[in-house]
User: Fold these one by one.
Assistant:
Number 1:
Amino acid sequence: MNAPLQNAWLEAGSDTALADANAANFVSLEAAQAEQKAKALKIERETHKLEKRLCRQVGQAISDFNMIEEGDRIMVCMSGGKDSYGMLDILLKMKARAPVDFELIAVNLDQKQPGFPADILPAYLAKVGIPFHIETQDTYSIVKDKIPEGKTMCSLCSRLRRGILYKVARELKCNKLALGHHRDDMLQTFFLNMFFGGKLKGMPPKLLSDNGEFMVIRPLAHVAEADLSRWAEHRQFPIIPCTLCGSQENLQRKQIGNMIREWQKKFPGRIENMFAALQNVVPSHLMDTQLHDFKNLKITGMPSEDGDKAFDEESFEAPNVMASLQGVQVVQL
């Protein structure tokens, strides 16, 4: 075979290989694009399910505890953290479809922490289009002055903040204050009181203020912290870190939170069971004489649903709390 003909065959083979490579690359690109599209659709689907779940759970809390009524003027307390952003976001969605008419006004307490970005919340709230008020009070200096280095600041900071917020609520003619505590906060508070306070006491979804003037509500009572984290990431809230409580690594609350998360990791569903227990209290099977009259308990000769089956083996049949999680898949947003 002469040289030109041989070169022609070699070039033809090379062209075929190149065409095959191009075709393979095209197929690979198409597959990658299809995979990316499928992933985007999956994230969109899961985000939609997350939004529906958040709205349903907030609606359930409002209904269960009669949190919001016709004509309420609600002060939504904004810290700049994921929880308060999520609470405001969902309350605004609920307001648009609520069966009663009520007002929302967002309030932030600027405690004059060093480096606090005072422009972020006003800019966000103005963009959302909700009435808001920024109260500026230098509680940071007071807390730093009164609390020794290394000690937790939460108690004093909380008392100062509460008094200021009540004053602001009065000035704004609000009758209710909405706080962004969620289900995990409520469980942590329960265990904090049990382990360190010797009380079976949690964080109520609704209560009177200590001066009896306002109603305090927690619309996120049924909401998991993990869902709020995912929602904050999806909505890209401009989160403001707290340099007071957020920087204290040895807080008892953080230790309790780590304990509960470890339990959930080892025994999935435990958080749901514990939260269900807060709503299924049997005073006759505890030891508080203020809640149950043990001293005057008499034999009646009649069957009782609450009667102790003293000689039976204990059976722990938890409520079907996992049913609500069926079909829920966590995806990275």
Number 2:
Amino acid sequence: MKPKGWSKRTGYKMSDRDTRQIGYQGVQYDPHCFQSQLKKLKDDGREKKTLQNVKVIQIPFDIAQEFILQYEWLGTMGTTKFSYGLYDDGELVAVACFGTTAGTGALSEPFGAEYKDKGIVLVRGASAPFAHQHSSSYLIGQCRKLLKKRGIWFAIAYSDPSAGEIGTIYQATNWKFYGWTSPVTYLVRPDGKRVDPKIIHKYAKKNGISSADQKQRFVDEGYTFEKGNSKMKYLLFTDQEKTLMKSKRVEFYPYLKRTDRMDLLHEEWHKEHKKSSINTLDNPKDEGIIDEQERRAIRRTKESHI
């Protein structure tokens, strides 16, 4: 029997905080990210840790979950497979959760299907209000070493501008920014939390029914669907960077910065990137760096503007 607070539908423990005050039901594209808002709400004025007597270890799912539900604005564990925790003076102050929420397609994108099994997704992460200001960056640095020991060569992560995110922690720890995701349609739980629609197929298989029947079952239980926004994609090399770079299938771009109009971030980047691509095509000495497929796409874009 599941403890009180667990959902029989998802198998995950629900956060008990008021989702009307924080999260996806907050003000979209707020220049102050939802994670920072939540941290301020949770801050009781406790003295900050010193980051002097620390250790990073793999922690059990339930310990990671209790921390994430309290300090991470999404309020769920996603599809976490394993987690690392940063302890400062014996107290848990930050957690990073890894899994494959984005699917193997996302892990194939940077370097091809040959290396998809060498990748992992950072699906959740948070630090406590009383943690040292550099706790998250320190944890990422240690996770990089630990992932390498597991045979993982790269990690990917996402930042959601609609939640005020720009990827500050990823930029501070030298991740590569490689563009934007395509918008997806989310499954929205009755408590307002958005989850990956792939769980429809997961629970259909678990319940021995078709995906269509499972989808209808979710709808009958109060689930709805909502179109999401494009997210920023980041990548961190943990091992074998030279080998992976030989098979690189994406471009790395300069970091974007936070603005008061986060809602325009994607549109403005897209326009600038399109303009830059056309200019590159016009410069013969740079043309060799663009593959044939991209050259054709750029030509079509250019012709449409004539």
Number 3:
Amino acid sequence: MAELLASGGSMEMVRAAFESGADAVYVGAKGWSRRRAQYEMDDPRIVEAAKYARSVGKILRVAFNTLPASAEVPLFLAKTDALYAEGVRDFILTDPGLMMALKNRHPDTILHASVGCTIINVQDALFYKEAGASQIVAECRMGKETMRKIKEEAGVGLEVLVHATTCYTLLGRCTMSSYTRHEHRVDAAGKDHFPGSPNRGGLCYRVCLTDWDQVGPDGEIEAAGVTLPNPAFFLADDIPDLIDIGVDTIKIQGREYSVALVGEMVRFYRELIDACVRDRASFRIGPWKERMARIVAERDAERREKTAGLIEESVAEDTLSLDPRLKPRVSP
């Protein structure tokens, strides 16, 4: 049966996700996982979470899904060595060089290639398999036929996000947010910090989700309130097909959501997956729709609040535009 993977933005969320039915939980290493520090974990907290996961017979994965500079590689290896010594074996990575380095150093580690790798075809999957990954995360727009081909031809596990966002471009490839914070600093440990670049350990400020004005060559507004596509999705309808394809992991994103909402989402997917597997022939998604709609409404309300805060912060930092014809609309 497909593993259910949930997010862990805090120790409380880790416990809630497991108690609600998650088979595995992922957490982010502080400064290395594309989120604000309050939703990441330092090493002692990761060790605590990993011990708790083992105590209940489940799995904790640690995300290092950023792209480090050469000078940061020794820091990465030191951190993963320390976590390995404490029993952590499961990691989520984006950089193929780090995958190879970690796998060579600790052959029994289990590495998953992050959604930030932008894996869109069988050849991508084979590349990351060669780098050391035993499972890859499908890019959010990947079709089911490509999923089948990867399962049949690549010989790697397949993970699919059923609750996430599609991203304006491709997850892990957008540089739009980096134009909001032109900063760089190196901390005492030698770790680079680029606040506006999620790929380098900073944040995505979701500036694509604000309203934009399209500006003409003479500064006139040609179109007001332009929105860029970045919808959140909730793929409950696809669960039966994903199970039939043989997807190995069904993933729920949401480290920034409330603990209560994450618990509710995990329970929903746990019960839906179990019902589908228990009686696939007669399973129908219809009865689940009303419950799903309530969760979607709660999720969207929390997402709007978080997005508004990020956009406000980015505007305060003098956001620039990638396209000279567009500029963000700032409320008075």
Number 4:
Amino acid sequence: MTTELYLLAVLLALLLGLAAGKAWERYKLRDGRWIDRRRLRETPHYMLGLNFLVDNQVDQAIEELGQATSLDTDALEVRMILGNLYRQKGQVGRAVNVHQALLQRPDLTELEQAYVLLCLGLDFRHGGFVDRALEAFQEVLRLDPRNRYALVNLQKLYEDQHQWAEALRVREQVAKIDGGQHPDNQQILGFLRNEIGHEQQRADDPAAVRTFQAAIDTDAHTVPAHLNLGDVREGRGDLAGAVEAWERLVAAVPEQAHFAFDRLERAYRTMGAPHRFVELCHRLIDRELQGWRPRLALSRHLAAAGQHRAAFDQLLDALPHHPHALAIHQQIWEALEALAFDPALIRRYVELTREAVFYLDPHICRRCRYRSTEPLWHCPQCHEWNTFVEERLAPAKDTAAAETMEAP
């Protein structure tokens, strides 16, 4: 009988604990009164607001979530979202008001306060209030020193102000927090060190060489650091050292070797070894058969040497790999002019380009889709580093098909 009573008592205690847990899940005590946590989620306005938010229908989401918060004035997370939506629509003043009102609540935990401050910092940054945004992000970090999102936004604020050393210091904190889990950290650190070196270069500071080298050591794919290091060495009369820096770029990032083509061609010519540029272009073509930039560079080199027919052939080889590159077509017409507008050569060209489309802004940011006429290291819209790629449309006809159009 004693054992049965003991088991009954244990079972009753478990049931009471379960009931208390369920009650705690649903209710919370605030200002001496119990708040139903589920009440907000059971309103149609809350669910509709979330659906509109997922569908990126911002106006409808604001309307429905606003209705939901009027039914439950204690809904912290929904009010935070509502403020963020105001900011997204450009209504920065309303966003600031919403988030500042949330900060006045006396019962916020430190974590809740940090997240509201983070939203407020984003409001100030979006509105161009740099000093107040800095203060907000720094206060977030005081409450939550490992808040990665606050650190990243603080870094971007420093970047906007060209305070590269401060941006580098903050990114180093991010990298330390990540512990090697985000490979983008090394890339960003390399670009930030390059910017510091670029400022030193403009001020004729001898430390620029060390800074560019540090950027390359951080991430060998930091293309502008290779270019700038070579430029500094060339300016100091060390042409061999400059060539070594630019050739390291070609070896480390061959798909972006074209940034060094003009420099290397000029340097090889000065050194009395123009054949080295021809050999470099052929190596790159052999490495990537679909690469069009080495063929374009080689055609320009051949045309400058008076070898216009060989230059034209290189251009027609490049065309199928990127038929929409305006630079190729401009160079082709220069070659055709030098070849007296040979009708057979014109027919070959026309057949290759019959279905081509031309445009002037082929470079696009992978993150935000911002378009540019040239590749940018730092996106002016989303402020991310090294995100531009060259957009290509459908390939043109193969050169072999056009070869039949050439007169014997």
